[in-house]
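Priority: low. Protein: Acyl-[acyl-carrier-protein] desaturase. Input follows.
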Amino acid sequence: MAVPETTRLMLELEGTVEENLNRHLTVAKEWMPHEYVPWDEGRNFADLGGEAWDPEQSRVSPIARTSLEVNLLTEDNLPSYHREIERAFGRDGAWGTWVHRWTAEEGRHGICIRDYLLVTRAVDPVELERMRMETMQAGYDSGDKELLNVFAYVSFQELATRISHRNTGKYTQDPLCEKLLARVAMDENLHMLFYRNLVQASLELSPDAMMRAITDEVVQFQMPGAVIPSFVRKAALIAKAGIYDLRIHHDEVIWPLLRQWKIFELEGLGEVGEKARDELDQFLKALDTQASRFEERRAAAEARAAARQA
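Result:
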């Protein structure tokens, strides 16, 4: 009886997973979410005799609030992500140990970001809670991705999330918020390295199938926060502010990983892999053009706004 391809891959990658799990546990530094929250700024809200939230209480701009909300709501959907990655990796051996370690580390991101935002009154807590309820009820569905597609997607997604957190922190111009999100981004980077290395190993084991998966995930990529209410509008505002846009996605997310994997230098691909690589090349050229056009439109809009204020 033939062994299913996914089972074969998991067996052959078990050593790689264990090696990278051990590396992660060695380099990951323990940190405490409560140490990043200025608790002395906290006070009661209206129902406990304090003040209801007002935009004037926030020390960050409206667009910074939007980006902070999107980042937190993305983290909030962790139960769905855990379900999806456990479905793909299982609970056994190093695979299962990684799933639970990853989930535990991701869990503290939502804890500390929410505590910070509520204590500092950076965002509307009522709107935030309503969006959290709606986002988590929508959940997240990966579409039953194949194992190699999961490797590719989470590699790009973790890097994208790292950059989104880091840039959001800088955009707030709040040193405490920037410190917090920089710490969260460090976790995301370690997660990206784990998945990136699985892709590298898979390119050696099943180059054609892995190439196909990389192309599919680049072409079809969506941030996990796409289920957030009004995500398209919010993503447009975030892009307009330069926090996360097509140029960043092209230059700082997709290409660094493709270069690491030496995708366009890889030899020995079969027909399936070569076809996928050609598709990827064409898509990247189109995305680069699209990113340049967006930058031009944004620059023109900024110039018009500056002229009106002159």
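DSSP finds eleven helices and no strands in the chain. The radius of gyration is 21 Å.
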